[in-house]
């Protein structure tokens, strides 16, 4: 069975694609949504809301909660033997994108970053989290912000375009083919499918279906290469232009 991860910016359309995959492939895939509800109710508190309202105070706590929730999902997915598994986000994106962004913005301390990195290394090596393929949904930050505003989650009111641009840049450097270097944690060159998410759900699914042979035979070519030590290799590159019909 193939372990597929869906990655991309906030508001890019990950949930919509997961729903479309479930409708299209039925029982041949088992979908694991992002554990948003887990962090919306932690000890009676909405940790997601706390984090957006006071990121300096709550970002570390939030990332600890997300990492644990994601690992539980990865472990459950690994136990699945009767269907391909599709997870919305992963422990990899949590570390490579979101934790690195917090470090870059000074929203977590050096010690907090070290603790999150050490935890990540333990999870991926000792618990052997080995995805087969990543589907990267790619859209301009401006499109993502518009979708966030349209879906109207109360916790997301304070999300800014600058924040989304920072996350977009880290996703690009990790997964986009225009990058000269892959991130050290995952050798992504052969195991990433890039989908233009600046369009409708049905159009994204059509793109994905054109990669079905690669998508569902990924386990035959081996897992993504995962190394113990985290040391992002960032390269300079220009953002590409995105075209497409009106996004959902």
TrEMBL record:
One of its GO terms (molecular function) is deoxynucleoside kinase activity. The active site is at residue 88. ATP binds at residues 8-16, 147-151. Keywords: ATP-binding, Nucleotide-binding. InterPro entries: DCK/DGK (IPR002624), Deoxyribonucleoside_kinase (IPR050566), DNK_dom (IPR031314), P-loop_NTPase (IPR027417). SUPFAM superfamilies: P-loop containing nucleoside triphosphate hydrolases. It comes from the Eukaryota. Residues 4-199 form the Deoxynucleoside kinase domain. GO terms for cellular component: mitochondrion. Belongs to the DCK/DGK family. This is Deoxynucleoside kinase domain-containing protein. It comes from Tetranychus urticae (Two-spotted spider mite).
């Amino acid at each position: 069975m193939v372990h597929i991860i869906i990655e991309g910016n906030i508001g890019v359309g990950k949930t919509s694609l997961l729903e479309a995959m479930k409708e299209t492939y039925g029982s041949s895939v088992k979908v694991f949504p992002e554990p948003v509800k887990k962090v919306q109710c932690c000890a009676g508190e909405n940790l997601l809301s706390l984090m957006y309202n006071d990121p300096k105070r709550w970002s570390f706590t939030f990332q600890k909660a997300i990492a644990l929730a994601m690992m539980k999902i990865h472990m459950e997915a690994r136990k699945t033997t009767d269907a391909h598994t599709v997870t919305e986000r992963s422990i990899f994106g949590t570390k490579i994108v979101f934790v690195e962004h917090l470090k870059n913005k000074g929203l977590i301390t050096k010690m907090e970053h070290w603790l999150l990195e050490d935890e990540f290394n333990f999870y991926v090596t000792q618990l052997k989290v080995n995805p087969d393929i990543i589907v990267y949904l790619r859209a301009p930050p401006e499109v993502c912000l518009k979708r966030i505003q349209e879906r109207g989650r109360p916790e997301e009111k304070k999300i800014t375009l600058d924040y989304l641009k920072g996350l977009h840049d880290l996703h690009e450097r990790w997964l986009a083919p225009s990058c000269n270097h892959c991130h050290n944690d995952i050798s992504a060159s052969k195991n990433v499918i890039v989908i233009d998410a600046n369009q409708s759900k049905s159009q994204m699914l059509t793109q994905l279906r054109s990669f079905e042979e690669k998508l569902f035979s990924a386990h035959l070519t081996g897992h993504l290469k995962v190394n113990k030590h985290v040391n992002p290799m960032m390269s300079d590159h220009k953002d590409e232009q995105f075209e497409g019909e009106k996004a959902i």
